[in-house]
Amino acid sequence: MQAELDRVIRALGEFYARETYLFEKDLGERTLTHRLAVYLERQFPGWQVDCDYDRLGERTLRMPKGSIVSTDDHLGKSVYPDIVVHRRAVPDNLLAIEVRKASNHQPPEHDRQKLCALTDPYLWFAYGMGVSLTLAKTSVTSDVYIGGARNQPLSDWLSERLKGAGLS
Length: 168
Known about the structure:
Layout: H1 2-18, H2 20-24, H3 29-43, E1 48-51, E2 55-56, E3 59-60, E4 83-87, E5 92-101, H4 109-118, E6 129-135, E7 140-146, E8 149-150, H5 152-164
Parallel strand pairs: 5-6
Antiparallel strand pairs: 1-4, 2-3, 4-5, 6-7, 7-8
Helix pairs in contact: 1-3, 1-5
């Protein structure tokens, strides 16, 4: 898991080094998400990196009934992760990432619930790991999700590594 997180850190480092314009002009989360995905793709050779991907093979991703995470995309609360690292055809789901701007004043609970559900090993589309990233102009805060729950040791490890990379 730490090797994958190191790749995320390298992608974030390159993203912050090259995409200052996006923060200077206060562009939206979808723009930030797309540009971050470009740098992630370079770090995960042999994997596909997609934004707002809503499939598992031929199936559409849907949350279990009773979930607080809506699948009603016109409300902007889709089940689609912001970024996924996966193999489309197999399917093989390595990493789901939710991205937020630090200036987003909506409660982060929706993203947390989504990452818990997406990493839940008892659901058929489980991702090996989920990462929540909150992007500020010059820094990143993060949480890591494994097995349907926030993983404190990996979250702390990632925070320390981000700090060491000058991203926190």
